[in-house]
Predict the structure of Adenine DNA glycosylase.
Amino acid sequence: MTVTAYSFTGLSLRIATEAIAQTVTDWYDTNARDLPWRQPDASPWSVLVSEVMLQQTQVSRVEPAWHRWMERWPTPAHLAADPPGEAIRAWDRLGYPRRALRLHACATAIVERHDGEVPDDVDALLALPGIGMYTARAVAAFAFRQRHPVVDTNVRRVVARVVEGAADGGAATTPADLRAVEVLLPDDHEAAARASVAFMELGAMICTARAPRCAACPLTTVCAWRLAGSPPADGPSRRTQRYHGTDRYVRGLMMAVLRASDEPVPLGRLDEVWPDAQQRQRALDGLLADGLVRRRGAMVTLPG
DNA sequence: TACTCGTGGCG
DNA sequence: TCGCCAAGAGT
C-alpha cells in the first residue's frame, strides 16, 4: 500500500497518513534513544536548552554539555544572573558560540517578559532571541505537549522520501513544509507531540542522509522513494563548505583562547593564532560586532 | 534568497 | 583520507 494508491479521496488519504504517524510512533516506543531531555519530568527550560544546543550539533556532543549546563543553571533566572561570558565559556566547543550568547539573552528575556517561566505558545517563543521557526515549535510540542508541525532537517527528509518519493528535502520552504507535516499529525495533541519526536528520531537513526537503513525502517513497504527504487537526488548538489583557513576557523581559534582564560587577554595573544593579519582583523571585528568579545584598550575579554 | 556562523563524527 | 553533514537562526 502506498499513500498515492489511497489518495483518490481525501478520506482515504487521511487514513493512510494517520497510519504513517501511528506506525512511526509505535516504532519510536520501542526504539527511541533514552535522552535526558525526553524524560517526562524534564522542565520546559531544559527542553529549550537542549533544542538550542542541538541546532546543527550532534546529540553525542550535546549530551554532556547539557548535563553540566542544567546543573549550573537549572532555571532561566540562574543563567540570567550570570554574565553572558560565562555562558560562552560553558558552551565550550559545541560550535556557533553566538547560540550561547543568544541563549543567555533568551534567559534574560524570559525573566523580564515571562516572570522567569518559559512561555508555552509559539508566538511568544518565536519572539525570544535564538528561537526560530523550528525551535519554537519543538519547545511547544515537546515541553508543553502541543500539536504543532515540528520541521527540522530530519523531518523534511523523511517526508520528502516517504510522501514525495524524493531523495532529500531540497531547499527549505517553510510554509509548505509546515503544511506537509501538519497533515501527517494525529488530531490528539499528545499523540501529535509523540509523532513529531518520532518522525525526528526516524530521520536521525534510520532515514539518514547518507546511508539510510531502509531494512530496519517501519515504513519501508510504504515509502514512495523506496518504491520508486531509491532514485538519487536530482537537484544541484549543495555547495561544499570548507572550514580550515576560513574566517570562521580563525574566529574559532580566537574564541578558544578567550574561553581558556579567566582574565583579559592581550591582543598580542590573538595575533599568535593565525599568520594572516588581515584575516585576523576581519575575525576579531566580526567577534566584536557579534558581542562575543569585548575590547578594553589592548586587552580583550569575553563579555561580562 | 542566499549567505554567514564552529566543531567534530562518520562513511 | 576527506568531503558531507549535523534537532537552525539571523540578516
